[in-house]
Specification:
single chain, alpha+beta, 60s Ribosomal Protein L30, Chain: A, five-stranded mixed sheet, 9 strands, 31% helix, 21% strand, elongated
Length: 189
């Protein structure tokens, strides 16, 4: 088993199965870590990744890099693309990694992993140097700011509040909620 296959197994164990997205996410994450001079075995607190899809690929990124939403080092950008941007905070080097259009391998998961293991990175991924301006409110660590929403009273962290006519509101109260409250008299548990 080569390095790629070892990591695919590790990601598959975490994710629950191996598929095209797991193979692609593993290949792109390993390529990015190599390009940035980072070791996937030594989880870096100086890495932030912006994943552009909420599919299997993102679990591979999480396992390979150690970046997570909870640590504020994995960011989700809803573009629906097999792409991710890796930012090394130590030196501000950033790269956007995409899957090549020509790289679509058909077959069973084993076929995909076997073929992917033999392909050089430059036949699978494109790496493009980019610049990412990261707000102080998006960096890992303790919250930089806390506000209470004028309408619902819920706490809003890290500059996510919206000023509407001089009143600070959460985004749900300012722009509409993704959910609908069914019982206004909620119960505490």
């Amino acid at each position: 088993m080569n390095e790629f296959e070892t990591y695919v197994k590790k990601v598959g164990d975490y994710h629950g199965h191996v598929c095209f997205g797991i193979a692609m996410g593993t290949k792109m994450s390993l390529a990015a870590m190599k390009y940035l001079g980072l070791d996937p075995e030594a989880k870096s607190k100086n890495l932030i990744v912006y994943a552009e899809i909420d599919r299997c690929m993102t679990d591979a990124i999480q396992v390979i890099t150690g970046c997570t939403l909870g640590h504020r080092t994995l960011k989700y950008v809803d573009y629906g693309k097999f792409a991710a941007t890796f930012v090394n905070l130590r030196n501000n080097q950033a790269i956007r990694v995409t899957i090549r259009e020509s790289c679509e391998i058909k077959g069973t998961p084993e076929d995909v992993v076997g073929k992917m293991a033999t392909l050089p990175e430059n036949e699978v991924v494109d790496i493009q140097p980019v610049k990412v301006n990261i707000s102080e409110f998006d960096l890992p660590g303790f919250p930089k700011k806390r506000e209470d929403c004028y309408v619902c009273g819920e706490r809003v962290m890290d500059g996510r509040e919206v000023n509407v006519d001089g009143k600070l509101l959460c985004r749900a109260c300012a722009n509409g909620k993704y959910y609908e409250v069914l019982d206004a008299a909620h119960k505490q548990v």
